[in-house]
Design a protein that fits this description.
single chain; about 140 residues; mainly beta; Chondroitinase Ac, Chain A, domain 3; globular
């Protein structure tokens, strides 16, 4: 795993990977088509942000690299890595509850805010960290 030098790419397994936390200046890639949706990524060392069809999907502060991102049947899964611990915000259903797993450990239930966002902290180190978010 490593940063996504092309900023956003489709993987053979149908997932997407995005983000480059090593960049010193903001870079973006708009209008990336994947499975009928248009994605846009903005990334650099301070922030990584992903939008789908103009709507918020993912944001991390500081910037991260996200690999094998998928959303299916009320489950969001991805691996994330970065230079330091990150606050990750993902799209969610307003007020819905989710079980959050980090590196296959259930870290508890979380409730999305009324704006439809779920905020979690991820401790990043030498290896990528897996994240799985399941709607209850």
């Amino acid at each position: 795993m490593s940063v996504v030098k092309e900023l956003l790419r489709a993987e053979k397994d149908g997932t997407i990977s995005f983000g480059d936390y090593e960049l010193d200046t903001k870079s973006k890639l708009p209008d990336f088509e994947h499975k009928g949706d248009l994605y846009k990524v903005k990334t650099f060392k301070e922030i990584t942000k992903l939008e789908r069809n103009g709507m918020f999907v993912y944001e991390s502060v500081p910037g991260t690299a996200v690999n094998n991102f998928s959303e299916e049947n009320d489950i969001m899964e991805f691996t994330v890595e970065g230079a330091e611990d990150a606050q990750v915000t993902v799209e969610a259903e307003d007020g819905a509850e989710y079980k959050v797993y980090i590196d296959n450990t259930n870290v508890g239930k979380m409730k999305a805010n009324l704006g439809g966002k779920l905020v979690l902290s991820v401790e990043l180190g030498d290896a990528p960290v897996s994240v799985k978010i399941v709607k209850i």
